[in-house]
Each structure stands twice: as structure tokens, then as C-alpha cells.
Design goal:
The structure is a single chain. Helices cover about 40% and strands about 20% of the residues. It is α+β, with helices and mostly antiparallel strands. Among the domains are: about 5-80, Ribosomal protein S16 (S16 Ribosomal Protein, Chain: A); about 95-130. The protein has a 5-stranded mixed β-sheet. A hairpin with a 2-residue loop joins strand 1 (about 5-10) and strand 2. The relative contact order is 0.09.
């Protein structure tokens, strides 16, 4: 039987209150426990002495009998000076996940392609402008006006006839 010193939740919904208990590691969080050795009220201010209450003699007794505290309880014990908690270092905690890295890479390539397409369009416009400036203007041919032909093409308007009743 492996013993744990852990938190057991009590209190109402949205109003947590925890008991610090000695329990078998296989028992449920809020289930059967061997002994209650303290309380923790997270709703109280951090400086309050009522926030964490520990029965130090019983905790020391159970630690000698092989009980292992959870990380949260070990933090309480470290503050109380009962057991030392080593600081943990997780260098990968701040690293983004694979999905985010993939999205960032896709966004980066899309931005590069957009810049490349804009540069190509600018280059093509500059090339067309250079060709237009280098080419001689087309010679204008005189346009002969033919008013008679235009008049013949339009049909003559028919005179209006009065309506007969």
C-alpha cells in the first residue's frame, strides 16, 4: 500500500475548500482517507494564517512511514519548513506546439510568396513601361472624312402621320 499526502476537495460549487489527507494512492481523490492532517482554503488571501493549516507532528510521522506528498502539498510543506521542495525546470514548457509551428511556417511561406509575386508584378510593370518609352510612337494616319457616306448610311426619318379615328 503506497501512501500519499494529498488534497481532498470539499466545499460547494465555485467555493473550493481542501482537506490535506493521508490516503492510499489508489483511492479516489475525494474518497476514503486514513487521516486528516490539515486544511487549505484557496479563497483566503495569500498572507492569511488560516489559508493553510498543518498538523506538523502527524505529517512528520507519516513521512517517516513512507508517505509521498503531491507537488501542491510539498509546496505547503516547504513553506512550513517540514520538507524541502526542489525547484523544477521545464525548458520545453514555453515552446510552441507542432501545430502552431506548422501554422507559423505556412504563414511565413505565404507572406514570402506574396512579396515575391508583388516584386514580379512590379518588375513586369517596369519592363512594360521601359518598352513603351523605348518604342517610337506609332505614326498617325490622316483620317479622311466622308460626310456624304455617313448621311447615306442613316435612314431618313419618316414624317409623322396623324392618327385616324
Amino acid at each position: 500500500m503506497s501512501l500519499k499526502i494529498r488534497l481532498s476537495r470539499a466545499g460547494a460549487k465555485k467555493r473550493p475548500y481542501y482537506r490535506i489527507v493521508i490516503a492510499d494512492s489508489k483511492s479516489p481523490r475525494d474518497g476514503r482517507y486514513i487521516e486528516r492532517v490539515g486544511t487549505y482554503d484557496p479563497l483566503l488571501p495569500k498572507g492569511s494564517t488560516e489559508r493553510v493549516k498543518l498538523v506538523e507532528e502527524r505529517i512528520k510521522h507519516w513521512l517517516q512511514h513512507g508517505a509521498q506528498p503531491t507537488d501542491r502539498v510539498l509546496r505547503f510543506l516547504d513553506v512550513a519548513g517540514i520538507q524541502k521542495r526542489e525547484a523544477r525546470n521545464n525548458p520545453n514548457k514555453g515552446q510552441p506546439g507542432t501545430k502552431r509551428l506548422e501554422r507559423e511556417e505556412a504563414k511565413k511561406t505565404a507572406a514570402e510568396e506574396k512579396v515575391k509575386a508583388a516584386a514580379e508584378a512590379k518588375e513586369a510593370a517596369a519592363k512594360a513601361a521601359a518598352e513603351a518609352a523605348a518604342a517610337p510612337p506609332p505614326a498617325e494616319e490622316p483620317v479622311a472624312e466622308e460626310p456624304a457616306a455617313e448621311a447615306a448610311a442613316e435612314p431618313a426619318a419618316e414624317p409623322e402621320q396623324p392618327a385616324t379615328e
